[in-house]
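Note to self: keep these together.
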Amino acid sequence: MDAMPQADVSQEQVLRAFGKRLQALRKARRLRQLDMAARGLSYKYYQRLEAGQVNPTLLTLWRVAAALQVPLRALLDDQGVPGA
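Structure:
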């Protein structure tokens, strides 16, 4: 759970892994990307988050966690997230 980040991991790898975690959390709740817009997030921006194309701010992470109804740490912790 508290694994140390690896220095040799690229930003792109980190963002892609984060996007996969978001996708797994969203799908576990049976939500579509389009459903995230109804929860206060831009559909296009959320789509780019899952694709690993953007680096979210802390405020964005907070909004995503609220939209998915999970604690903020669940977005960053891949333990127990299917497919992440």
